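Q: Hi! First time doing this. I have a protein sequence and I read that you can turn it into a structure. Is that right? Here it is:
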Amino acid sequence: MLARGSLLEQDVHNLYSDHHGWLYGWLRKKLGNSFDAADIAHDTFMRVWVGCQADAIPALREPRAYLTTVARRLVVNHYERQSLERAYQASLALLPQALVPSVEERAILLETLHELDALLDELPAKARTAFLMSQLEGLAYEDIAAQLQVSVRTVTRYMAQGFRQCLHLMLTQQA
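A: Yes, that's right. Below is the predicted 3D structure, encoded as structure tokens:
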């Protein structure tokens, strides 16, 4: 890559041409299947391109290291989404047949869970953890503060961040 300030679209194109095959192979070995590897390789380059558009990516001296970092984060997100889907399917299996949502309702719920997961993923790790501890485990702010070793005021701030993210999701779905 060139040593100027940040990546340009042509640089992203060159990055893709030079490293896509390598990244795809690396992901295929890591994930064990070509479909997820192709999706995550694509998502990796989309993140790079979006960052380029926002002028948020500096010129890269070690492009493979950068791509690996982005791809690893996407792999973690992929596994978290799979875990979320499994938990959702398990909870559906526990419902009486009369209460099981239709296929369409399930698809909408799963899509909403994915959107919420993506929005919460934008939160700092401790804020996301505090929000999930409160909403999924029903823990009081004091208990969360003790577990995270922060003040109750900090937990309150974390919760506000989480609720803002949820409100954002609700507003974008209504639009």
